Structure formats: C-alpha cells, structure tokens
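Thread: quick sanity check before group meeting

JM: Hey all, I'm pulling together slides for Thursday and realized we never actually wrote out the predicted structure for the chain we discussed last week. Dropping the sequence here so it's in one place. If anyone has concerns about the input, flag it before I start.
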Amino acid sequence: MEVYLQEDSLTTCGYKNNNMDKLGIANDEVARKIMEGFKINWMAMKDGETGAVHWRCKNWDNNVLDKTETFPKDLLKCRVVTREINFTSKEEIKEFHLLQRIYLAGKVIEEWHFKFGFVIPNSTNTWEQTIEAAAPEDMIPIEILNSSMMIETLFLIRDQVIYRSKMRVQYKCMFPI
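JM (edit): ok, ran it. Output follows.
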C-alpha cells in the first residue's frame, strides 16, 4: 500500500512552510543559510530502558527527502524508544525544535513535539528524544504497520519549517547492530 502526504500537511498546527522547495527546505534567505550549514550526521533508535541500539544510519543523506528504511521488528517490543540525532550546525539557531508525525494509510495517527532550543554556531550536537510505546494490547499489528507507515519530520525555527523529511518504514527480523 502506498502512503501519500497531503500537500497542506506542512501548514497545520500553525507552522509555516515558507514556499518549500523539492527538498523540503524553505526558500527564505535566513533558513537557506542555516540549512546550508546544517547536517544530520547520523541517527539511531535505541531501547530507552536498556540502551541497546536496534537501528542506526551512520551516513544520513540530507539531500534525500523521501526514503525507505528498515527497522528490526524487535524495536516494536520496546516499552520506551530513544531516538538520537547527531547534527552539525555552522550557524546559530534559536528556538530549534522538531515536529514528528506518524502516518498510517495517509492519516496522522501520532504527533510529537521535541524542543532543542539554542544551537551554538560551529557545533556538533547529539539530541535524544524519548518516546513511550502504547500498551501491548493497544499496539498496531506489524502486518498493518509494515510499509504502510510513514514518519514525517519537520525541523523548525520558531514557527518556520526549515527542513522536512519523510521516511517510509518497514519492519523485519534482523541481527543486532
């Protein structure tokens, strides 16, 4: 099943899309300058209780807006998941935060806001976000989630979207990292 985002999804919740280009980067001059010096270096998903790494992307490609990633199905058994994003910024960023939306069959089923705050210029940072899982009886079966779930992540400064990525998710049995 293909999952598509509605084009107006970037303007909900009071956030402005500022005439995004095809890579999801605002055409605003200040946002462009920040994004030219902004790089996601790597991302990881860990068991929030044990610290065990279940998934890692060591070479994040900031130029790919729409990608597909495979997560180990054991990640769905974690009661708490910690996502780590390691990023570098050449520019100072004030009020940096992200909005993450989880889509299933094209509809938002979950939405989370994470605040980082101030980013020092010429710095590398590791940002952890913790997500608590639903009770086991409330979890959506893997057969429904697999390949029909999409994660949209909006990186924002105040209420301005400066970068957006979409990730289609597949779950498979995998060896530990």
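AS: nice. The longest strand covers residues 107-119. The longest helix spans residues 29-36.
JM: adding both to the slides.
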